[in-house]
């Protein structure tokens, strides 16, 4: 991974031939972005050869890939190809979060990944509800991960949004562990949620799933970063069955954080909704959800950041169906005039994909119950003939841990994904799940682990078959041999993929649950 206009350092490649046949190698195609010195070679039996790759990638964000091809001179063995991939990406320097809470039963953290070879000075502006902002500075060492305890930074009992700015590009993520008490339902709901921040503000945010039915508490949290002007907020709620919408207005003070408890919206009946939130000024909106699921009985919650617009295609790397996991896709058609039809394609660990179809009337929301279609691991591609919203809700008991997760999919596959948060210490089980949606190409995926200890990055390489799903237990890489098992990850692939990171936990021996995020795509 590099920044546009910055060529990666030259790479010296050594090929060892341990066979009884001469091997020839060549660099694939006529490439302008990479060259080899020498340009090709022949390696005698039981000998080795070195060559150097030099790069010239240009000034625009792009992904480049080719292969080094190895074949024996006697044509006895099949050729071997070694992928060469460079991703030139503008990783963000500023990140925004609307949600955050340090009240009783809530522990909030900010995790920061610095993928640069030098230290990163990070400034965090905490915007509080009803109080002046607080600003703090932190240093994240080179090629490392740092963790900020937000409760300690702003004090107890604060509703808080954040603006995170690095002196260098960085990745920012916000995990929260909670024991939420619902006064509406007289329930205590333990769990956790986690989101990567957004790197741009907007004025329109779409949400496919808001639930105010029994044992569900849904909120909309709003960031207004304008230092002088109050923000007008217009929320249009669309009932799941379609029909007339409900419009409700709110205001958020300047340089502040606002909160709407959707269950308490006057004139909004209990039910399931999609929603469009329009802001009078550039800002950000998130949707935290706390629940006890009627299907599994599990408690938990999750959080999503609204999307700027609906899309015809959505991809999900994670998915699992068993007797203790309920997987559902919530599909919403935000159009008030046009129906949408489409397909949901499930990619499995092995074997042919499984496909089901759907139709959404104008304004309608539908739930697809995956447990009725398949079992085991799956990744998903959702395609519709009109722009829609697609979320994956999962309610589960992982071993003895109850919980729930909910994510919006990736709008498209990518060659690069990044995660700031990662932990494999006691009570935590974390996985990296990858979807390869290509019907023909095998993906070679490099995962770089950035430990929080400042130790050297750890690199692992995996191959993923076409139209399939791959799972890595990150605890097999960041093991008990590490004194601190916190880390970040950078995931690169020669084929466009989708990467997610599900996590299951018992936090401080008391709070159980799970969280899941789709990785950051620069």
SSE layout and pairings?
Elements: E1 11-17, E2 23-27, E3 34-37, E4 40-43, E5 47-55, E6 62-72, E7 80-88, E8 94-97, E9 106-114, E10 120-128, E11 134-140, E12 144-149, H1 150-154, E13 160-166, E14 171-182, E15 187-196, E16 202-211, E17 216-224, E18 231-239, E19 246-252, E20 256-261, E21 272-292, E22 299-305, E23 311-316, E24 320-321, E25 325-332, E26 340-348, E27 354-360, E28 365-369, E29 376-398, E30 401-408, E31 414-419, E32 428-436, E33 443-451, E34 458-464, E35 468-473, E36 487-507, E37 511-518
Mean pLDDT: 96
Structural class: mainly beta
Number of strands: 37
Number of helices: 1
What features would you describe in this structure?
The protein is mostly beta strands. The chain is built from 1 helix and 37 strands. The chain has one helix at residues 150-154; strands spanning 11-17, 23-27, 34-37, 40-43, 47-55, 62-72, 80-88, 94-97, 106-114, 120-128, 134-140, 144-149, 160-166, 171-182, 187-196, 202-211, 216-224, 231-239, 246-252, 256-261, 272-292, 299-305, 311-316, 320-321, 325-332, 340-348, 354-360, 365-369, 376-398, 401-408, 414-419, 428-436, 443-451, 458-464, 468-473, 487-507, 511-518. The radius of gyration is 24 Å and the shape is globular.
Provide a short characterization of the protein structure.
The protein is built from 1 helix and 37 strands. The chain has 522 residues and is mainly beta.
């Amino acid at each position: 991974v590099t920044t546009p206009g910055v060529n990666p350092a030259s790479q010296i490649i050594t090929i060892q031939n341990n066979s009884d046949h001469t091997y020839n190698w060549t660099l694939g195609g006529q490439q302008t972005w990479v060259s080899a010195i020498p340009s090709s070679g022949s390696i005698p039996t039981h000998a080795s050869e070195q060559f150097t790759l030099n790069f010239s990638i240009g000034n625009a964000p792009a992904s480049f890939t080719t292969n080094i091809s190895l074949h024996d001179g006697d044509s006895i063995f099949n050729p071997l190809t070694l992928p060469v991939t460079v991703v030139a990406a503008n990783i963000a320097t500023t990140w925004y979060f609307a949600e955050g809470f340090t009240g009783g039963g809530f522990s909030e953290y900010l995790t920061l990944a610095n993928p640069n070879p030098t230290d990163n000075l990070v400034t965090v502006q905490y915007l509080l509800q009803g109080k002046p902002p607080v600003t703090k500075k932190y240093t994240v060492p080179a090629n490392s991960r740092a963790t900020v305890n937000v409760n300690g930074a702003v004090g107890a009992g604060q509703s808080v949004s954040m603006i995170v700015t690095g002196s260098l590009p960085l990745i920012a993520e916000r995990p929260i562990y909670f024991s939420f008490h619902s006064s509406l339902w007289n329930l205590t709901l333990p769990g956790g949620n986690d989101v990567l921040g957004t790197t741009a503000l907007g004025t329109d945010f779409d949400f496919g799933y808001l639930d105010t039915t029994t044992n569900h508490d849904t909120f909309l949290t709003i960031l207004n970063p304008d230092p002088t002007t109050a923000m007008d907020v217009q929320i249009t709620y669309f009932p799941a069955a379609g029909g007339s919408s409900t419009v409700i207005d709110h205001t958020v003070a300047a340089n502040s954080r606002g909160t709407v408890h959707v269950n308490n919206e006057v004139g909004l009946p209990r039910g399931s909704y999609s929603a469009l939130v329009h802001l009078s000024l550039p800002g950000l909106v998130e949707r935290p959800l706390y629940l006890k699921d009627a299907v599994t009985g599990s408690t938990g919650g999750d959080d999503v950041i609204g999307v700027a617009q609906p899309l015809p295609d959505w991809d999900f790397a994670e998915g699992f169906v068993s007797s203790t996991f309920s997987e559902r896709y919530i599909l919403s058609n935000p159009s008030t005039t046009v129906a949408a039809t489409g397909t949901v394609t499930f990619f499995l660990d092995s074997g042919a994909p499984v496909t089901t179809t759907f139709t959404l009337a104008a304004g309608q929301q539908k739930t697809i119950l995956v447990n009725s279609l398949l079992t085991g691991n799956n990744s998903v591609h959702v395609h519709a003939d009109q722009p829609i919203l697609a979320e994956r809700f999962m309610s589960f008991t992982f071993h003895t841990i109850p919980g729930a997760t909910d994510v919006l999919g990736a709008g498209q596959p990518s060659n690069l994904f990044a995660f700031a948060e990662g932990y494999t210490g006691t009570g935590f089980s974390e996985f990296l799940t990858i979807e390869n949606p290509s019907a023909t190409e095998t993906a070679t995926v490099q995962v770089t682990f950035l430990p929080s200890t400042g130790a050297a990055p750890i690199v692992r390489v995996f191959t993923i078959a076409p139209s399939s799903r791959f799972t890595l237990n990150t605890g097999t890489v960041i093991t008990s041999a590490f004194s601190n098992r916190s880390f970040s990850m950078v995931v690169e692939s020669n084929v466009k993929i989708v990467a997610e990171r599900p996590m299951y936990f018992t936090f401080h021996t008391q709070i159980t649950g799970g969280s899941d995020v789709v990785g950051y795509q620069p």
